[in-house]
Design a protein that fits this description.
Elements: H1 12-29, H2 32-36, E1 42-49, E2 57-61, E3 74-78, H3 86-100, E4 107-110, H4 111-117, H5 121-130, E5 133-137, H6 145-148, H7 151-154, E6 160-162, H8 169-178, E7 180-184, E8 190-197, H9 202-219, E9 227-234, E10 240-244, H10 248-288, H11 303-317, H12 360-374
Parallel strand pairs: 3-4, 3-5, 5-6
Antiparallel strand pairs: 1-8, 1-9, 2-7, 9-10
Helix pairs in contact: 1-9
InterPro entries: eL8/uL1-like, Ribosomal_uL1-like, Ribosomal_uL1/biogenesis, Ribosomal_uL1_3-a/b-sand
GO cellular component, one term: nucleolus
Family: Belongs to the universal ribosomal protein uL1 family. Highly divergent.
Length: about 375
């Protein structure tokens, strides 16, 4: 909500002068046709805020003097009653409005009829052009945005929700129809609200302006000074300023910004000092601590080297079965007797050489010559 300590006071005399000047300008621009048809232009307030809002918001503004005539067409969207057809639902709500004394609503459209009969684009455009204002049952308000289309919002004719179960239904609908709304966007710092029409008296327009400004100031969800400038304008005129904020607010903004910057600088310096102290403490701790020796991996010898070492050790340690003495000779140191009695063994061939089965070398040469001649 807005800061209630801020006081926005309008100069009633200045507002009335601006209204009279605007009415005089519109009379000079009017044509005989417009006078015969009693065509009046809308008068709107243009609010310029000090900063862009962080959240979008729609504010309803009740006005002491209605800005709509009895000839304005108002359409009401209702929910579908259980166990009723769309025609029966339409008759049911028309009867309810008549019993409660509501006379401003000219047409009742159930939700099912809106989905079926007004589904094409051309049907939606005709519906938008046939009525000046749209109301909706608060029980189906959230479901309407996907069916009515974006043109309702572009023309600023989006349905306003009404509680049809209220005991003061006639008063609530009358306030909604005769009041106005303002849409505050988070994309810019300017917003506009329709507060009167050119056919109203100057005093009535001034009262509506004061009521609209006070409502916006109290319901706006922002902190600090809110409104910078307020202008009054019509559809075809220039904007006339009726309120300008005190420029001392700029000095307050500068002071608050300086304080914020000083606080940020102090935080940064403190964080830097803490980091420097931590670095010094870590350096001291690392200097006092003993150095940890590094572990050197042990190189394992190859399997062959291990086997060689083991065999050498085994040979060196193996015991001698003779106890270091020579083995005894079974013959008692004497030579073994010769069974032939010292004589040579007899030759079975009688001392002659055995015959050569191959016939000697000459036989081999003869065979080789025979083979060559055959080839």
């Amino acid at each position: 909500m807005a800061d209630k300590s801020e006081e926005l006071v309008l100069d009633r005399v200045q507002v009335k002068k601006a209204v009279q000047a605007l009415q005089a300008f519109l009379k000079t621009k009017s044509t005989p046709d417009s006078l015969l048809l009693d065509e009046s232009q809308h008068l709107s307030l243009l609010f310029t805020l000090w900063k862009i809002p962080k959240q979008a918001q729609t504010i309803r503004i009740p006005l002491p003097h209605g800005i709509r005539t009895d000839t304005d067409e108002v359409c009401l969207f209702t929910r579908d009653e259980p166990n009723m057809t769309p025609d029966q639902t339409q008759r049911f709500y028309k009867k309810l409005l008549a019993e409660r004394g509501v006379k401003n609503v000219t047409e009742v459209i159930p939700y099912k009829t809106l989905r079926t009969e007004y589904k094409p684009f051309e049907a939606k455009r005709r519906l938008l052009g046939n009525f000046d204002m749209f109301l909706s049952d608060d029980r189906v308000r959230r479901m309407l945005s996907s069916h009515i289309g974006k043109h309702f919002y572009e023309r600023k004719k989006e349905p306003l929700s009404v509680n049809l179960q209220s005991k003061k239904l006639a008063l609530d609908i009358q306030r909604t129809i005769q009041g106005t709304t303002i849409s505050i966007s988070k994309k810019g710092c300017c917003c506009m609200a329709r507060v009167a029409h050119s056919g109203m008296a100057a005093d009535e327009i001034a009262e509506n302006i004061e009521s609209a400004v006070s409502t916006v100031v109290t319901k706006l969800r922002m902190k600090g000074p809110l409104i910078k400038i307020i202008h009054l304008k019509s559809q075809s005129s220039v904007a006339l300023p009726i309120y300008t904020s005190n420029m001392n607010h700029l000095t307050l903004l500068e002071e608050t910004q300086k304080q914020a910057r000083a606080a940020m600088d102090a935080k940064r310096n403190s964080s830097k000092q803490k980091s420097a102290k931590e670095q010094k403490s870590t350096e001291r701790n690392t200097g006092t601590e003993e150095e940890i020796p590094q572990l050197v991996p042990i190189v394992t010898p190859s399997k062959k080297a291990k086997l060689e070492k083991q065999t050498k050790k085994g040979l060196e340690k193996a015991p001698n079965p003779t106890g270091g003495k020579k083995a005894p000779n079974p013959t008692g140191g004497k030579k073994a007797p010769n069974p032939t009695g010292g004589k040579k063994a007899p030759n079975p061939t009688g001392g002659k050489k055995a015959p050569n089965p191959t016939g000697g070398k000459n036989a081999m040469k003869r065979k080789s010559k025979r083979t060559k001649k055959a080839v």
